[in-house]
Amino acid sequence: MDSVVLVTQRLSRSTLYDELTRNSESLEENGITRVLRIGDCLEPRVTAESVFDGHRLAREIDTSDPAVPLWIRS
What we know:
Helix content is 42%, strand content 0%. It has helices spanning 15-21, 24-29, 47-60, 70-73. The longest helix has 14 residues, at 47-60. The chain is flat.
């Protein structure tokens, strides 16, 4: 039997981000100043791209705007 599996709709997964940022007062009370989105939270990606997102953010977390990659800002 032959089969074809179509992947035609890919959605970002931002549920965790949405839940974390829903209550900004609670974040502030716990000393959390920002929550950043990477990987599939932004848009569906292959695993390697999501891993690179995490690596890039770890290197650039102390920059003025870590949500925007340095190579885009320069």
